[in-house]
Each structure stands twice: as C-alpha cells, then as structure tokens.
Amino acid sequence: MQAKDKAHWQSLFSHFCSRTANEEEEIAHKLLGEQFRGQLGLLHSLFKAALYDDHLSRWFVLEGFRSLFALVGTNGQGIGTSSLSQWVHACDALELPDQQREQLDSFIDQLYKDIDKETGEFLNCEGSGLYLLQSSCNHSCIPNTEASFRDNNSLLHLNALSDISPGQEICISYLDFCQRDRSRHSRHKILRENYLFVCSCSKCMSQMDEPDITSEEEEGEAEGETEGDEMEDEMTDV
C-alpha cells in the first residue's frame, strides 16, 4: 500500500493464486466460510478505513478483499527466523554418540513443550511473506525440497531433500511434518480447505484404497474398540 509504483506491485500480485473457490471441485476457501463471516466483515471495514487508496480500489470492495485475503491465505509462507530454531538446527548437525543424541533430543523436546505453554505454536514464525518463485512450486506429500531461513532473516532458501534430475518438477509440501504423516483423507481435508485442490501425488495415489476417514476418526475408533474390550472383560469378570 505504501509502494510508489503501485502498478508494478499490482502486476506482481496478479501472478499469485487469489481464487476464493474451486468451482470444478466445489471447494471454497476455509477462511471465507460462514463461521468467519463476522470477523471478515469487521476486518474489511478496518482495512478500508485505514488503507484505502483509489489506485487499489478493486481490493477494497468486499469481493476484492476476499480475493486478497485468499491470496495471502493460499500463498503466504510463514517466516521462521528465531535464534532458538537456528540453535536446534545446529544441534541436529552435531555428530554425537547415541546416548548423548537421545539426551539432547529429549532436552530439546521438553524445552519446546515448556515454551509452547507460554508462547503457543507460533514460536518460530515472525510473520508471513509472499515469495513469487516459491509460491509457483506445486505441492507433494513427499516433497523434494523444503523452505528454510538459514540466514536468520526474511530471505527464503529452497533446499533439496533428495537428488533432483534435470527436468524433474520441484515440489514443496504445503503441510507441516506432522500433517504429512496423517492419513490420506486427513491430508486431503487440510489441502481442500486451505489450498482448494485435491492432491494426486505419488503418495496419495498409492494410498487410494485407504478408508476415507481422518486420523482423528481412526484414533477415536481405536479408543472405542479398546473401551469396548475393557467393558466386555469387566462384565465377564462379574
């Protein structure tokens, strides 16, 4: 909004995906759902009152604002530059005997748990940025690259996770490490709600025969079976 060459920046923004829905798949962006209508309306009013500019008027009407909101929600990359994150990465690179590695990993796990109680899950996220080249990378549940901020600033690096052959597509994951380990249905639910597509990567295709239930539902069923077994044992004892 403060840039002098507004036409240049509007042109750059046009390269980002800003659709609010995928009509073919009948998917609407999660952040634009009915449950967020009130908050979005309030945010739109505050946004318009604080930053209105005639040159950017299309983003200040409600539909344009929804499109801008979807653009950031779909393309935004969390910027992680905390000194703690840098220290943990340095620890990961240390060559240690197995016992010392276990002790260090245990200490780091507990440290994150203790900090999480005070700061929440956004400890290593100092904001969200739009990166033109990185945002053009497609998603895979088994990515061959990942984003990092190794210079401890907002400069994003894409690091290869495996050998990449000439002509091979460079893919990142729109899911975090924990989400990638969840069931195919859980991953699809997150990607549909936040990125408006159905993933067809090799991992998802190999899991097509899995039941269409989320990881939480699987855990709930397992707990229910356990409780049922315990109840039957108690009744047998009686």
TrEMBL record:
Keywords: Cytoplasm, Metal-binding, Methyltransferase, S-adenosyl-L-methionine, Transferase, Zinc, Zinc-finger. It is found in: Cytoplasm. It catalyses: L-lysyl(20)-[histone H4] + 3 S-adenosyl-L-methionine = N(6),N(6),N(6)-trimethyl-L-lysyl(20)-[histone H4] + 3 S-adenosyl-L-homocysteine + 3 H(+); L-lysyl(36)-[histone H3] + 3 S-adenosyl-L-methionine = N(6),N(6),N(6)-trimethyl-L-lysyl(36)-[histone H3] + 3 S-adenosyl-L-homocysteine + 3 H(+); L-lysyl-[protein] + 3 S-adenosyl-L-methionine = N(6),N(6),N(6)-trimethyl-L-lysyl-[protein] + 3 S-adenosyl-L-homocysteine + 3 H(+). CDD domains: SET_SMYD5. Gene3D superfamilies: SET domain (2.170.270.10). The keyword Cell membrane does not apply. Its main location: cytoplasm. It comes from the Eukaryota. Residues 210-238 are annotated as: Disordered. Transmembrane segments: none annotated. Pfam families: SET. Its EC number is 2.1.1.359, 2.1.1.372. It is an enzyme of class 2 (transferase). Residues 1-175 form the SET domain. PANTHER family: HISTONE-LYSINE N-TRIMETHYLTRANSFERASE SMYD5 (PTHR46402:SF2), SET AND MYND DOMAIN-CONTAINING PROTEIN 5 (PTHR46402). This is Protein-lysine N-trimethyltransferase SMYD5. It comes from Characodon lateralis. The gene is SMYD5_1.
